[in-house]
Specification:
Number of helices: 15
Shape: flat
Distance between the termini: 57 Å
Number of strands: 10
Order of helices and strands: HHHHHEEEHEEEHHHHEHEHEEHHH
Length: 479
């Protein structure tokens, strides 16, 4: 049977049901946190509205209880500040005009103009001060009306008690709403768990024959991979395993078949022969040949390309959120009506994106367009976007291409940080030997599609076959 047809009619249907169920359970797990945040935001709006109304009610009493000289002083200060602010623009215009006159007619003419116009403005300010002091005179009485003070204190105490009562009501209602929501989510997840277990049981039967094809501790196994183009052997009977949690490097001369292998793994190409086994997030050993290219990302395999693929007309933060599209559970109905589920998903993904940017030291770029960033920063943003998919295996195609030495060193630190902090495996193709040898745990060297050697960076550097095919003969270099 055609592999694509097999995927659509068999395993693929079960995988889609399982992944959708798993996604719904994951969303329900986050729902309570998002719901609590939503309740807090609503309560905060109500709290601020009450505080504003409370201040309006207390203001007349506060003014009455405040000594007259203090009230008038504050009113004068406020009025004068506003008048001086209004005069700032005319004064600036006078100074600019005086500079132009001085440039044409001399310093004396400019100073005369400035003195005259600024003097007029100063006169208006003095007249305004007189009016203000007349309206809000300096009052000699410096004590407050004791009755008014007592009245204000009583009102303020009553408002504070009312605020405390409202706060208690907010908290009680919040806990009640959270309890009901938790019960709903528990019931929903119980039903979903039954379905998830059933789907996983069926898939485990489907995948049972694959279990022996991949050793324990390995996340991927390439078995006898072959890919030919019009007789050219781009990948020629290639086999190797990738250990879970490793940074695995693939090196080889130009045309060795590295990118072709990546395309076969991610199903952009269907290999002519061979097997590609991968341990998914559920512990099942799956054959990636059963998948179509656009479904590979759902397994936890994410890839970057040699050329940048960021969206240029949206912000860096929004570019990261685009990377989470495969995990959205809200369908067209939720999107069209802008339901709470859709808003919660948007918030959860935004929070996740901000956290990733902060961890990778990219927060300063979050609101900028990619077109305004350096090439090195764009490479880091593209790496950050891969993390939005919660990957198990990240495939990097020449991530250091176009970077200088300092940027490459920074990239190597980010790659290690991603592996350690996000507990994922890194599989990279790279021509920069310094990066490969510094960051990789295991390196596989290939030439003309065939494996030359595999081992630690030190073992690869000293391997004579690698030196001959990739680095060249030592004697010839000496000549």
């Amino acid at each position: 049977m055609d592999l694509n047809l097999k995927y659509r009619l068999g395993i693929g249907r079960l995988v889609k049901k399982r992944d959708k169920t798993f996604g719904e359970m994951a969303f329900n797990t986050r729902f309570l946190t998002l719901f609590e945040q939503d309740l807090e935001e609503r309560n905060e709006k109500k709290r601020k509205a009450f505080e504003l109304e409370s201040k309006k009610r207390l203001l007349p009493l506060e003014i009455e209880a405040t000594p007259g000289h203090l009230v008038n002083s504050e009113m004068r200060e406020k009025a004068l500040s506003e008048f001086i602010k209004k005069q700032s623009l005319p004064r600036r215009a006078v100074i600019q005009s005086a500079k132009r006159i001085a440039a044409k007619q001399g310093e004396a003419a400019g100073k005369a103009f400035s003195d005259k116009k600024l003097g007029e403005l100063d006169k208006k300010l003095d007249e305004y001060k007189v009016n203000i002091f007349s309206k809000y005179p300096e009052v000699d009485i410096s004590f407050a009306n004791e009755t008014a003070v007592a009245k204000y204190d009583a009102a303020a105490t009553a408002e504070a008690a009312k605020m405390a009562e409202i706060e208690a009501e907010f908290e009680k209602q919040k806990q009640n709403d959270l309890k009901k929501a938790a019960e709903r989510m528990k019931a929903k997840n119980a039903k979903l768990q039954v379905n998830l277990d059933a789907y996983n049981a069926q898939l485990q039967q489907q995948y049972a024959a694959n279990t022996s094809k991949l050793d324990d501790g390995m996340i991927m196994g390439i078995k006898n991979m072959k890919m030919y183009f019009s007789g050219i052997k781009a990948v020629d009977d290639l086999s190797f395993d990738i250990k879970e949690g490793d940074i695995f490097g693939l090196i080889g001369p130009n045309g060795a078949g590295k990118t072709t292998l990546f395309n076969c793994i991610t199903q952009f190409y269907k290999a002519d022969a061979g097997e590609i086994y991968y341990r998914d997030r559920f512990g099942n050993v799956i054959d990636l040949r059963d998948y179509q290219s656009h479904n590979v990302a759902n397994t936890g395999i994410i890839r970057t390309f040699q050329n940048l693929a960021l969206v240029p007309f949206i912000s860096v933060l929004d570019n990261l959120m685009v990377g989470a599209h495969i995990y959205y559970n809200s369908d067209l109905f939720h999107q069209f009506l802008h339901t709470r589920k859709m808003k919660y998903e948007e918030k959860a993904n935004r929070d996740a994106a901000l956290d990733i940017l902060e961890r990778l030291g990219l927060t300063e770029y979050k609101d900028l367009l990619p077109t305004s960033l350096s090439y090195g920063a764009l490479k880091k943003v593209e790496l950050a976007r891969t993390l939005m998919t919660k990957p198990r295996l990240i495939i990097l195609d020449e991530p250091a291409a176009g970077l200088n030495d300092a940027e490459t060193e920074e990239l190597s630190e980010i790659i290690r940080k991603i592996r350690d902090d996000y507990e994922c495996t890194i599989f990279l193709v790279e021509h920069d030997m310094n990066l490969v040898m510094n960051v990789c745990d295991t390196v596989c060297a290939i030439s003309f599609g065939k494996k030359l050697a595999i081992g630690t960076p030190e073992e690869i550097q000293t391997n004579p076959l690698v030196q001959e095919a990739y680095l060249g003969h030592g004697e010839e270099e000496g000549e």
